[in-house]
Design goal:
Family (chain B): Belongs to the TrpA family.
Low-confidence stretches of chain A: 1-7
Number of strands of chain B: 9
Strand content of chain B: 5-15%
Number of domains of chain A: 2
Radius of gyration of chain A: 19 Å
Helix content of chain B: 40-55%
Function (chain B): The alpha subunit is responsible for the aldol cleavage of indoleglycerol phosphate to indole and glyceraldehyde 3-phosphate.
Structural class of chain A: alpha/beta
CATH superfamily of chain B: Aldolase class I
CATH architecture of the largest domain in chain A: 3-Layer(aba) Sandwich
CATH architecture of chain B: Alpha-Beta Barrel
Structural class of chain B: alpha/beta
Strand content of chain A: 15-25%
CATH class of the largest domain in chain A: Alpha Beta
CATH topology of chain B: TIM Barrel
CATH topology of the largest domain in chain A: Rossmann fold
Largest interface: A-B, 38 and 44 residues
Number of strands of chain A: 14
Catalytic activity (chain B): (1S,2R)-1-C-(indol-3-yl)glycerol 3-phosphate + L-serine = D-glyceraldehyde 3-phosphate + L-tryptophan + H2O
Distance between the termini of chain B: 28 Å
Strand order of the largest sheet of chain A: 3-4-14-9-10-13
Mean pLDDT of chain A: 95
Helix content of chain A: 40-55%
Radius of gyration of chain B: 17 Å
Protein name (chain B): Tryptophan synthase alpha chain
Shape of chain A: globular
Strand order of the largest sheet of chain B: 5-4-3-2-1-9-8-7-6
Pfam family, one (chain B): Trp_syntA
Order of helices and strands of chain B: HEHEHHEHHEHEEHEHEHEHH
Oligomer: heterodimer
Shape of chain B: globular
Largest sheet of chain B: 9 strands, parallel
C-alpha cells in the first residue's frame, strides 16, 4: 500500500496519474469487453485501500501465512569473496512458496474475495507466480486455472507438479514460442470469455491499470522492510539496491520505497540471454522500444513493423519481451539504471552464492547477483549494496545441471 | 459522403442489412488474399473487413490466431496491407474497407502517418481492438484530420452509462461484439441480440454491425436484421484453412471461400 508520503506532489512515488500512466507509459489498452472490468477493479482496489480492515487482514496473512518480515542477511563470505562493498541479501526466497510472488498474490486474492469472484486465472513463466496463485486458491477454496507456455511447462516440471498438487488446472499454451508472453495472451482470452465470475490475477507490475500500481503496492512491503532493517543494521540507507527484472515486480517492490531517496542508486538487471546484441535476449529496456502490449505502453522487444519478438533467457521467469511501465518511466527519467546480464554470468553467480552463503538462488535473482559481482569489487568497503534474492533456486537445479553437463 | 455512409444508406433503401466478410491480409500469401479481396464484392460482400496480422492477437480465438501467424510468415506488414488496399481500389472505388487489428503495429508505423497513408490507400475505417475510448486520443485527431472513421466497439459488458461515453464521438458504424469471449468461439442467441440492440440504438443513430460468433447463413440473416450488418470472420477463415496444403493455397481455396460467402450473402438478401 502507498504510504502517506507517496501522495506528496514532488514525490516520484505519486504515480500513476488518473489514466494509469507513469509519464507516457502504462495506460489501459484492453478490448472494450474488458474495459468495464478494469474500471471495476480499480474501484474495488480504491475501496480496499481506504478500508483499514483490508490492510489488517493482509498484515495478518503476511505475518502468519507468508512468513513476513523476511530477513535482511549480511552476506559476509560473499562480501569477502568480492572484496569490496558490503553485500546484504533481502531474503524473499524464504517466503512461503519460495519467492516474492506470494506478497502480491496474497493482496490480490483478498481483493478478489471482496469482489465476490469465485474463479481465478493467472499466467506464469517460471511457475513461481502460478504456484503462489494455486497456493492461495487452495487456502481459500477457489477454482484456479493457470496458463503456462508449453516450453515452460517442459523446463519447470517441479512447479507444474506443485500446482497440480495444489488443485490448480495447468493449461499448457502452444501458441508462439510457448513462453510467458503467450501464457499472458491466453489468460487474457480466458478472462474475456469468463468475465462474470473470474478474477485475472496478474503476477507482475504490468498489464492494464490498475495492475502495475496494485502489484507494486503489494510488493512494496519488500522495500519498506529493507528500509527499516538496513537502518537498524547500519544506521543508514544503502548506497545501491540491485534486483533482477523480468516483468519487474520484485524490483519495483524493493525500489519503490526508495524512489525519493536520491542517494540510493537503483539498478535493475535484465536478462541479456546470450548477450545484449545476440538477438537472443530478454532485455526490453536495453534493446526494446516503446510500444503497446498486454494492456500497457512500455518498452518492448519488437521488430521495426511493431511485431513482438520472442524473448530469450535461461531463466523462464525473465523470458518476457516487455517490462512494467513504471520501470520504463524510471529509466527515461534516469532515476533507475537498467543493465544486462547473460545466461552464463547468471549461472556463475548461481554457483557463487550457493558456495559462499549456502543459499541456492533462483536463476532470476542470480542475474541480480551477477551484476553485484561486477560492481561490488569496484566499490569501497564502507559502501552498502542490497540485493533482492527474490526466489529460491530449487526449481532451477535441472536447468543448471544440464548446463553444467550433469544428467539428473 | 464517406463510402461507409453511402453504402449503409443505399442498403437502407434496399431494405436489408449488410454482410461484412473478414479476411486476414497475407493469409496464406499476399497474392491469394488480394485475389480473394478483389472477388469478395461480386460474391456479395457489402463492406469488407481486413485483419492486420499481429504477433499477439489476445482477443482472437485459435482460427484467427493461426491466420495471423500464416500472414506474418508470408511477410505481412501494416504497409503491405495498405498496399493491398491500394491495389483493390484500382478496380473498386465503392466497397468500404475497414482494417481490424491491434494498436502496436499502428503505433510503430506512426499514428499520424498511418491515418494519412490509410486514407490515401483507400481505407475507410479502422477497428483497433486494444484501443478503448479511454486511449483513443492517440489516433482520434489524426483520424479525423485524414477522414478515417474509427469504428467504436461495444460489448455485452458495456453499461448504459458507458455506452454514452463510448459512442460520444463515434463515426462510421458501431461494432457490437455480441459475446463476452474471443473470436470464433460462441454465439449470441437471437433473444440476446434483440435485447441488446435497442439499448445501443437509443444512444446512437449510426448503423450497428454485429460480430463475433456469426458463422451460418441463418445467423447472418438474423444479425443483419436485428442490427444493420453481420460480420463473418472465423467461419470463412476456417473454410480457407481447410483448403490449404502445407499452409499453401490450392486450387480449392478461393472457390471454397467465395461459395460460402455467396451463401451468406444470399441469406441477408432473402
Amino acid at each position: 500500500m502507498t504510504t502517506p508520503s507517496s501522495s506528496l506532489p514532488n514525490s516520484l512515488r505519486s504515480g500513476p496519474d488518473e489514466r494509469g500512466r507513469f509519464g507516457v507509459f502504462g495506460g489501459r489498452f484492453v478490448a472494450e469487453t474488458l474495459m468495464p472490468l478494469v474500471l471495476e477493479l480499480e474501484e474495488a482496489y480504491r475501496a480496499a485501500q481506504a478500508d483499514p480492515a483490508f490492510r489488517e487482514e493482509l498484515d495478518y496473512y503476511y505475518r502468519d501465512y507468508v512468513g513476513r518480515p523476511s530477513p535482511l542477511w549480511f552476506a559476509k563470505r560473499l562480501t569477502e569473496e568480492l572484496g569490496g562493498a558490503k553485500v546484504y541479501l533481502k531474503r524473499e526466497e524464504l517466503n512461503h512458496t519460495g519467492s516474492h510472488k506470494l506478497n502480491n498474490v496474497m493482496g490480490q486474492i483478498l481483493l478478489a474475495r471482496r469482489m465476490g469472484k469465485t474463479r481465478i486465472v493467472a499466467e506464469t513463466g517460471a511457475g513461481q507466480h502460478g504456484v503462489a496463485t494455486a497456493t492461495v486458491c487452495a487456502l481459500f477454496g477457489l477454482k484456479c486455472v493457470i496458463y503456462m507456455g508449453a516450453t515452460d511447462v517442459e523446463r519447470q516440471k517441479p512447479n507444474v507438479f506443485r500446482m497440480h498438487l495444489l488443485g490448480a488446472e495447468v493449461k499448457p499454451v502452444t501458441a508462439g514460442a510457448g513462453t510467458l508472453k503467450d501464457a499472458m495472451n491466453e489468460a487474457m482470452r480466458d478472462w474475456v470469455a469468463n468475465v462474470a465470475d473470474t478474477y485475472f490475477l496478474v503476477g507482475t507490475v504490468a498489464g492494464p491499470h490498475p495492475y502495475p500500481e496494485m502489484v507494486r503496492d503489494f510488493q512494496s512491503i519488500i522495500g519498506t522492510e529493507v528500509k527499516e532493517q538496513i537502518v537498524r543494521a547500519e544506521g543508514r540507507l544503502p548506497d545501491v539496491i540491485v534486483a533482477a527484472i523480468g516483468g519487474g515486480s520484485n524490483a519495483m517492490g524493493i525500489f519503490h520505497p526508495f524512489l525519493d531517496d536520491a542517494d540510493v542508486r537503483l539498478i535493475g538487471v535484465e536478462a541479456a540471454g546470450l548477450g545484449l546484441d545476440s538477438g537472443k535476449t530478454a532485455a526490453s529496456i536495453s534493446r526494446g522500444r516503446s510500444g503497446v502490449l498486454h494492456g500497457n505502453r512500455t518498452y518492448l522487444l519488437q521488430d521495426k513493423h511493431g511485431q513482438i519478438e520472442e524473448a530469450h533467457s535461461i531463466s523462464a521467469g525473465l523470458d518476457y519481451p516487455g517490462i512494467g511501465p513504471e520501470h520504463s518511466w524510471l529509466n527515461d527519467i534516469g532515476r533507475a539504471e537498467y543493465v544486462g546480464v547473460t545466461d552464463q554470468e547468471a549461472l556463475d553467480a548461481f554457483q557463487l552464492l550457493t558456495r559462499t552463503e549456502g543459499i541456492i538462488p533462483a536463476l532470476e535473482c542470480a542475474h541480480g547477483l551477477a551484476h553485484v559481482m561486477k560492481i561490488a569489487p569496484e566499490m569501497p568497503k564502507d559502501k552498502i549494496i542490497v540485493l533482492n534474492v527474490s526466489g529460491r533456486g530449487d526449481k532451477d537445479i535441472f536447468t543448471v545441471a544440464s548446463h553444467l553437463g550433469v544428467n539428473l | 459522403m464517406s463510402r461507409i455512409k453511402a453504402r449503409f444508406e443505399a442498403l437502407k433503401k434496399e431494405g436489408r442489412g449488410a454482410l461484412i466478410p473478414y479476411l486476414q491480409a497475407f493469409d496464406p500469401d499476399y497474392e491469394t488474399s488480394l485475389e480473394l479481396l478483389k472477388a469478395m464484392p461480386a460474391a456479395g460482400a457489402d463492406l469488407i473487413e481486413i485483419g492486420v496480422p499481429f504477433s499477439d492477437p489476445s482477443a482472437d480465438g485459435p482460427t484467427i490466431q493461426a491466420a495471423a501467424l500464416r500472414g506474418l510468415k508470408a511477410g505481412a506488414t501494416l504497409g503491405g496491407v495498405l498496399e493491398m488496399v491500394r491495389s483493390f481500389r484500382e478496380t473498386d472505388t465503392e466497397t468500404p474497407i475497414i482494417l481490424m487489428g491491434y494498436l502496436n503495429p499502428i503505433d510503430s508505423y506512426g499514428p499520424a502517418e498511418f491515418c494519412f497513408d490509410a486514407v490515401q490507400a483507400g481505407v475507410d475505417g479502422i477497428i483497433v481492438v486494444d484501443m478503448p475510448t479511454e486511449e483513443a486520443d492517440l489516433l482520434d485527431a489524426h483520424a479525423r484530420a485524414a477522414g478515417l472513421d474509427i469504428i467504436s466497439l461495444v460489448a455485452p459488458t458495456t453499461s448504459r452509462t458507458r455506452l454514452f461515453h463510448v459512442l460520444k464521438d463515434a463515426s462510421g458504424f458501431v461494432y457490437y461484439v455480441s459475446i463476452t469471449g474471443i473470436t470464433g468461439t460462441g454465439s449470441a442467441s437471437q433473444a440476446q441480440l434483440e435485447e441488446a440492440l435497442p439499448k445501443i440504438r437509443e444512444v446512437t443513430d449510426l448503423p450497428v454491425a454485429i460480430g463475433f460468433g456469426i458463422s451460418t447463413p441463418e445467423q447472418a440473416r438474423t444479425a443483419s436484421r436485428i442490427g444493420d450488418a453481420a460480420v463473418v470472420a472465423s467461419a470463412l477463415i476456417k473454410t480457407m484453412a481447410g483448403t490449404l496444403s502445407d499452409g499453401k493455397a490450392t486450387g480449392k481455396t478461393l472457390p471454397a471461400v467465395l461459395e460460402q460467402l455467396m451463401a451468406l450473402s444470399a441469406a441477408v438478401r432473402v
